[in-house]
Amino acid sequence: MKFIPFTLSALAGGLVAALLVVMLLRPAPPADVHPVRRSPGEYYPAAAPVAETAPLPDLPAAAVDLRLAARRATPTVVHVDARVEGRDRATVKALFGREESSGTLGGEGSGVIYSADGYIVTNYHVVQAADNITVTTADRRRFPATVVGTEPKTDLAVLKIDARNLPFLELADSDAAEPGQWVLAVGSPLGLVSTVTAGIVSAKGRNLSLLRDPDAIESFIQTDAAVNPGNSGGPLVDTEGRLLGINTAIASRTGRFQGYSFAIPSELVKRIVDDIIQYGSYRRAIMGVEISSLMPADQQRLGLRDRTEGVIVDAIFPGGAAETAGLRVNDLIVAVDGRPVRDLPDLTEIIGRARPGDRLRMTVVRENKSRELTIDLLPAGN
Question: Where is each PDZ domain found (predicted)?
Fold first, then answer.
């Protein structure tokens, strides 16, 4: 049995040699990758840094749970039934797209309770030309509603019912909304009351040329939450159950949802609705210009270097705020109060949310040089 010590010595020597070989042959980490210790004796390369425009909030590891948002939003959503009497049948059917077997003409949609004392927000096209409007709340109470005011250029309307202590939603900051975040659409699509659908924000600042007025304000939040006829006027809410927008339109070749729906952002809704409640109408501020999104032809015509976004000033109205501020035709507006202006919807929303008398700081590019101008907005009609 004397050979045992020699055997153990040989095994030990072999193990040491093997470890040395492994360590020598193991490739060193690249210079820009730092080993991170996971547990004693174990290392792995750290992931390469990812470029981010802003830090993201801590997100839960579990799947997104939208039940709380649905519980908060559903009681605040109403069904709006708008009926018309004594008008041309063909005209009204074209407006509302509905004719019941009883011969009654009208339309229906959704709305969201804006305040506990009975103010309700919906779309203008839901109640347009209606003589009798009935609102049904989530608990199946029915109320006659009156129109407080409308703003066709944004497709918004405010209704009032005689009720108190109604549930309503906190407003979300639509400026902070980002593509990829979860949202819910709540309403009465195809007559199915209190329907909740989910999706994500797909894009912001969409202009569909849906509203025919030349100075209409279109800067929609685009989502892929299913929205169908009857959803119009209902809320788009975030995962906290806060009002992020008013569902208004779908992009479809069939008249039914095909993956694209659009909502008026909450910050614009608040600005217009608060005016309607306080004054009976929206008090709009104007610049006194004609504007359009920057196009490749404009870049070439004006010799703009390294500029692919912004809004071109096409005309200036005499005596308007823009003329007083020193704005000129062919100026390229690229920012307002530090907020970037990519295209026409960005600027129309910014001006639409401003009030007459507000002073804005505009960054413009003129002859390839950036400059700051201060503009004092005037009320519409001046």
Answer: 291-368
| 3-state DSSP assignment of residue 379 | strand
* Given 155, 238, 331, 346, the catalytic residue: 155
* Cβ count near 295 (within 10 Å): 11
The predicted model scores a pTM of: 0.78
| Residue 154, C-beta contacts closer than 8 angstroms, at least 6 positions apart | 124, 211, 216, 217, 264, 268, 272, 282, 352
Active site residue 232: yes
Q: Which domains does the chain have, with CATH numbers?
A: 3-45 (no CATH), 68-160 (2.40.10.10), 174-267 (2.40.10.10), 285-379 (2.30.42.10)
Q: Given 174, 219, 232, 261, which residue is catalytic?
A: 232
Q: Each residue of 273-303: pLDDT tens digit? A: 999 999 999 999 999 999 999 999 999 999 9
Cα separation, 116 vs 120, whole angstroms: 10
For residue 255, the 8-state DSSP code is S
pLDDT score of 96 more than 90: no
Distance, in Å, from the CA atom of 56 to the CA atom of 190, rounded to the nearest integer, reads 38
Q: 3-state DSSP call for residue 52? A: coil
Q: How many C-beta atoms lie closer than 10 Å to residue 293's C-beta?
A: 17
Q: Which of 79, 81, 110, 125 is catalytic?
A: 125
Q: 285 - beta bridge partners?
A: 379
Query: Whole-angstrom Cα distance, residue 135 to residue 108?
Result: 10
